[in-house]
Amino acid sequence: xxxxxxxxxxxxxxxxxxxxxxxxxxxxxxxxxxxxxxxxxxxxxxxxxxxxxxxxxxxxxxxxxxxxxxxxxxxxxxxxxxxxxxxxxxxxxxxxxxxxxxxxxxxxxxxxxxxxxxxxxxxxxxxxxxxxxxxxxxxxxxxxxxxxxxxxxxxxxxxxxxxxxxxxxxxxxxxxxxxxxxxxxxxxxxxxxxxxxxxxxx
Length: 202
Known about the structure:
Elements: E1 7-13, H1 21-24, H2 44-47, E2 70-72, H3 85-93, E3 97-100, H4 105-113, E4 117-120, H5 123-135, E5 140-144, E6 149-151, E7 157-159, H6 164-172, H7 176-181, H8 184-201
Parallel strand pairs: 1-2, 2-3, 3-4
Antiparallel strand pairs: 1-5, 5-6, 6-7
């Protein structure tokens, strides 16, 4: 997993509540056997007509939000099924940070496992960000994970909370496999002890 680094990115506002994982990545695209290739199907049924034409009224089809790295959204984002593909699609599309008042628990955990920072802010702060994004074209935020702050274009900062273990994992690029490999020496020592115990019994 790539290490999370501080960045400044354009904000795309998805003003919808209870966005579920089937809306993030529709079920017909889950047959891919690898973890890549999902980005182009992100929010597919919202981005495209049935005949493949682009829906001009969907936020990610607006050139104003092209290349956005931050997705601003509403309560209970990522609800529904536990499919990890939803996070893969968001990541491959280019999103590095999500901002919302709340997330579904499994989706929230999957974000950290795949290098995406899901920031939880108070409803009032989220409402204010939506207002500011609407008023200013090219609105961007600076995300500072070590300091746990978001800096607005006017210099104002918003603090966010994050579990220390999850923060460390993002900063060091440690997914579950990498975390396990850090214990390689202890695992080998245990296996040697177990092997010796087995030989003694035999």
